[in-house]
Structures are given as C-alpha cells and as structure tokens.
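Try this one yourself first.
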C-alpha cells in the first residue's frame, strides 16, 4: 500500500515539473517573438522618419537620438539660410568708380575714359554701341536706321558724373548715360520745324564751336539763319569729328562718312550729332538769340540776322551779316582764312 502511494506521489511531481517546463518554453518563445517584432518596428520607424528611439532597436539612448535629430534640423536650417543668402557670409560689394563725362565728349573719348577707369574696354564699348539694340530707349527708338550714321548713340550719352561698376558690361555702362539723356533731354527741347534729333545735332555743333556759354545762343542764331537761308553751315568742328574721332576707328573706305558729316559738303545739318552736348548747348539750339546784343570786351558785331562768326585765339567772337564784314573780322582778329565760313 505504501509503495502504491509513493508511486502516485512521484507521478504527480513529474506532471508538475513537465507543466512548469512547458510554461517556461512558451514564455521564452513569446519573448523571442516580441523582441523580433520590436526590432522590425524600430527598423520601419527609422525609414519613416526616426520617431522610434534607437534604444528600442539596440542603438543610442533616446535622449542622444533626439539631440542628433535636433542638430540635423539646425544644420538643415543653416544650409537653407546659406543657400538663400548666396553664401556663408554676405557677398562682397562690387567696386565702383566715379567718372565724369564732360560736355562735348564723343563716344570715342568716352570709351577712352571708361577704359582708363577700369569700367570696360573701349573696343567692347564701341562694338556694343554699333551692334546692341537700344531701341527700348524712346530717344534711340525714334531715330530709325541710317547706314550713313557712324554711331547711333552719339549725342545721347548725356554728360554728367556717374558711378560705374569696375568691369561692368558695356551695354550697362551705355545704359547709365542713355537714361541720363532720357531724363535730361526727353521731349524738353523744341524748335519749330525741327525734330529732337536735329536739335541734338545742332547742339553738338554749338557745343564744339563755343568755348564760352555766353556765346552759345548767338552762335545758334547764326546757324539757324544759315539753315533758313539754304547756306551750308561750314562748321570746322564737323571736319575735326570725321578726321579725329571717326577715321581712326574705321577700316576699308575711311572716307565713307565725309559727305554726311562734313558741313562744307552736306547741304544742311550733318546726318547726326558730332558729340554729346550738355544742357547749355541744347537750350541754345532750341532758343537762338533773337534780339540785338551790345558788344562786350570779347564779343563784337552780333545782330539777330548774323550769318557769320569767327573766334580768335584769345577767345574773342566776331559776328557779321555779310561776307565782306566777315573777312574784315578775320583780319582784325588775326584769324587765318581758309578754315572758317567762306560763303
């Protein structure tokens, strides 16, 4: 009987042991499955934006992970800011140079001065002046096209003091001066029967012929009178323009502009301006002297109907209504005949 009881008790213990082993194995399997699921979830969250902490996937602590994420966000923000500003620091300012363009300068002279100041090359400026379309400036667009005109922009590069960039594009440098003409010429100057271009052309001759602003309106009157009488202007400065500022720039037939600018040859005004006149000459071209003026220490014989004038080496001006009077003035002033008005 005792043996039977012991046998039953042993069997019970064996059953309890087996049950405990089974439970332990089941817990272990469940733990393994949970761990695998956790790793799979951690990998997935990294791909989708890193919201799962690296501690849960066997990496850094969640605090360190958050710090790295914050650092990356700051770096991205910094890179975005740099990209928008164009660099890691403010871009260096472009160097400028102040250049004065005097009244009466030609395009060729302007090219020399801009090259000397480091703005652009003269050859590039002249090429752009010939080939670039500046017709969006109304004064230039109104000129149309004329193959006999050497430089379309001549006369419209307004004399002033400008701040240019060093090594700037020639078309931009020219644009500065064209805007100067837009603002200072525009449709401001009018004279009956003349276009704005004709006024600018006459002003360019007055600018070159007069070394004294006080004489500009008188000289303008002489030229207006000669134009109305059908007389050639016979202004020496138009010959100087061809010989000094056009021919040195030309190849091939260097005389091809002579008859269009030389006012001893062309019947009236030249085909275009011979320089870039300032405000005083422009005003004089549109407002010639129409009343008698008393002689001064440096100005003699002006009357509103004068058709001749000459200037001596001392800056004295002599006006006449007849060729005989003009020749007498040449002798009086010691002016060598042959370079002045002869008819």
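Now uncover the answer:
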């Amino acid at each position: 009987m005792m043996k039977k009881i012991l046998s039953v008790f042993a069997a019970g213990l064996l059953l309890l042991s087996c049950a405990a082993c089974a439970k332990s194995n089941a817990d272990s399997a469940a733990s393994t499955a949970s761990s695998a699921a956790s790793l799979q979830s951690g990998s997935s969250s990294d791909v989708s934006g890193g919201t799962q902490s690296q501690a849960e996937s066997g990496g850094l602590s969640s605090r360190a992970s958050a710090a790295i994420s914050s650092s990356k966000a700051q770096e991205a923000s910094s890179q975005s800011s740099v990209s928008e500003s164009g660099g890691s620091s403010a871009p260096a300012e472009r160097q400028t140079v102040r250049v004065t363009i005097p009244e009466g300068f030609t395009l060729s002279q302007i090219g020399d001065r801009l090259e000397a100041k480091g703005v652009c090359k003269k050859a590039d400026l002249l090429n752009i002046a010939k080939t670039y379309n500046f017709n969006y400036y109304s004064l230039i667009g109104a000129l149309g096209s004329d193959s006999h005109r050497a430089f379309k922009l001549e006369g419209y590069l307004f004399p002033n003091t400008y701040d240019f960039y060093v090594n700037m594009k020639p078309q931009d440098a020219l644009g500065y001066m064209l805007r100067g003409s837009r603002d200072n010429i525009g449709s401001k100057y009018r004279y009956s029967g003349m276009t704005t271009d004709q006024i600018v052309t006459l002003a360019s001759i007055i600018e070159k012929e007069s070394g004294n602003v006080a004489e500009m309106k008188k000289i303008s009157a002489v030229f207006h009178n000669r134009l109305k009488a059908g007389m050639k202007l016979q202004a020496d400065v138009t010959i100087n323009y061809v010989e000094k500022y056009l021919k040195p720039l030309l190849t091939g037939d260097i005389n091809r502009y002579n008859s269009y600018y030389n006012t001893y040859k062309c019947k009236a005004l030249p085909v275009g301006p011979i320089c870039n006149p300032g405000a005083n000459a422009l005003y004089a071209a549109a407002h010639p002297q129409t009343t008698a003026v008393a002689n001064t220490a440096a100005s003699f014989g002006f009357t509103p109907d004068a058709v001749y004038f000459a200037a001596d080496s001392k800056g004295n001006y002599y006006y006449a209504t007849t060729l005989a009077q003009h020749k007498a003035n040449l002798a009086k002033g010691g002016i060598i005949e042959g370079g002045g008005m002869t008819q």
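Discussion: The first strand starts at residue 96 and ends at 100. The beta strands are 96-100, 161-165, 299-300, 308-311, 317-320.
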